[in-house]
Amino acid sequence: MTWQRSASQWFRLPAERLWDVLSRPERWAEWNPAVAGAALDGGLREGATGHYSPAHRLLGPLHSRTAPAFTVTAAEPVRRLALRQPQPGGHQDIEWTVEERDGGTLFTQTVSLHGPLAQQFGLTAGEPLVRRFAEQCARLYRLAEAHDGDRPERLTVLAGGSGFLGTLLAADLTCSGHDVAVLARARRSSPFRQILWDGRRPGAWSEELGRAGSLSIVNLCGADLDRPGTPENLELLERSRTVPTLALAAASREWERPVAHWVQQSGVHVYAGLSEPAGETAPVPESTPGLAAVVRAWEASAAGARAERMSIMRTGVVLHRDAPLMSRLATPARLGAGGHLGTGGQWFSWIHAADWVRAARTALGLPPGPGEEPLGVPAGVMNATAPHPVTNREFMARLRDALGVPAGIPAPTPLFRLAAAVLRTNPDLALDSIRAVPESLLSAGFRFEHPYLASALEEMTS
Fold first, then answer.
1. Which of 79, 124, 440, 458 is the most buried (most CB within 10 A)?
2. Each residue of 204-226: pLDDT tens digit?
3. Reported pTM
4. Which residues of 88-122 are buried (b: 16+ CB within 10 A; e: fewer)?
5. Of 80, 86, 147, 84, which Cα lies nearest the Cα of 111?
6. SS3 assignment, position 255
7. What is the CATH number of domain 154-460?
8. Under a CB-based contact definition with an 8 Å cutoff, are residues 54 and 128 in contact?
């Protein structure tokens, strides 16, 4: 059996800079928090041996006492480094490659386990090494970049940047050489510059942002939608979005220069109640309650911002192997409960995380990716969704295919609502029918890396 995870990130750096860090295993722990320490027994060469220790407080000491040495199976300078760690009944391979591409370097990390216990060791030994890959890359960039003290003139600030999507975007921008800062309510271990704020009113944070030569803002503030849809929770969801947005908007009106690009996160639930496919010009139902009302208030709270360009990203469900949604859906599917939810005919609007990052870069006036040109996407509403939404029935079937599960028991609406109450989640996230289409992105020539669900799920499970 085999367990494998692979991921890549482009760096605006020469390959030699990355290789200088990667080729020194003693620095592994500096960019991957899952590693407590590592060292070679001698110089770096094929056949050399060494030891590494996981950072886990229980597994780390056990590994250090019982695990044999790893072996360097490949050491091709400024190209490829591979390690093999024996495991009971098999082994674990860790491979890093660097490839010069599009004026920078593409870094790829692959972790695979082989043997009869590959799946079990994948969860305990492999998964921690690949988790939060974006943050790993941001740390790796910081270690490999030239420390000349200069920063780009343009500052991009992410409010709500310590969350899942904010981390992905901040890491991508960092690795592209941009000056990035995250507005945070408390300091945490992070590879990104943090600016403290209370999320309620202008203060020292707004004075610091006002001094930036050129400022772009990405507003991702908001509590997790995945909670029961009680009146109290809906009020929390709305307040956690509108209050910080109003504070940002108020601060922007005090700055000498307007914000160059303001990217306002939103959600496709604003289209709840529409039966037809919804492009950016579709009329928004004004009376739909629940999550739709939360999203309407969220968008309205940004109306007073002073910005040269405002983009409102109405985002579908973002698919990524680290996203909480995947564990919520994948675990029941593996246990045989992966049938359609409700009628199964409701539409599901989604986007792969890599394409969401590319769309956010486009909204910031940047090229979607290395080697590409900026796109002329109009300001205003942008549907950040894949071009091919699917029904819930198809989504669950594709998910089962990706997980290798042949069948799944469906959950009729009453049963699913009961299960959602037990699991403390909002059933409307799955039962609302929303068929959003990204007309603005498609018209501008945006290229989706994962336009179809099958390829998105395959990338997430490989």
1. 440
2. 999 999 999 899 999 999 998 88
3. 0.94
4. eebbbbbbbbbeeeeebbbbebbbbbbbebbeebb
5. 84
6. coil
7. 3.40.50.720
8. yes
